[in-house]
Amino acid sequence: MTDSGTPAPTTTSTGRRLEVGDVAPDFTLPTADGGQVSLSSYRGRSVVVYFYPAAMTPGCTTQATDFNDSLDPLRGAGFDVVGVSPDEPARLAEFAAREGLAFPLASDPGHGVLEAWGAWGEKSTYGRLSLGVIRSTVVVGADGRVVHAAYGVRAKDHVERLRRTLGVDA
């Protein structure tokens, strides 16, 4: 589903979209801080994994800063946050420093995780079809299963809508 509640277009040329109840594919990716992040390290805690096209672009900055501004309420409700993009770690480090982001930004330049999670595929931008990151958010429960998945989301107000969906007070 998109943020507006309409069905999201299906991924046409790569992996299938995750659905509620699916086991989320594990991953280990390099991060902006020079370390690594693995989905398995969040077992026992819920995590919001969001996929965005490119660091330091207007929409991606809006979304990242909205997640950052919501970290305390999300963490208080038991949700950690991880952002994933095809950007290299050095670019993610610059983005995190510039915006003061306090959650992991993971680098997936080969698109393997993006594809496995259904966040890489054909999309339309200003009427032109291209292959790229489909802005997506997947919430994984403490047991490693998907509890919410949204594809083709809009950056503006997305975090606010997600918080309402998850029952996280403002």
TrEMBL record:
Region named Disordered: 1-27
Annotated CDD domains: PRX_BCP
GO molecular function, one term: thioredoxin-dependent peroxiredoxin activity
Function: Thiol-specific peroxidase that catalyzes the reduction of hydrogen peroxide and organic hydroperoxides to water and alcohols, respectively. Plays a role in cell protection against oxidative stress by detoxifying peroxides and as sensor of hydrogen peroxide-mediated signaling events.
Domain (Thioredoxin): residue spans on this chain: 18-170
EC number per UniProt: 1.11.1.24
Keyword Zinc annotated: no
Family designation: Belongs to the peroxiredoxin family. BCP/PrxQ subfamily.
Oxidoreductase listed as a keyword: yes
Source organism of the structure: Pseudokineococcus basanitobsidens
Reactions this protein catalyses: a hydroperoxide + [thioredoxin]-dithiol = an alcohol + [thioredoxin]-disulfide + H2O
Compositionally biased residues, Low complexity: 1-15
Superkingdom: Bacteria
Record's protein name: thioredoxin-dependent peroxiredoxin
Enzyme class: oxidoreductase
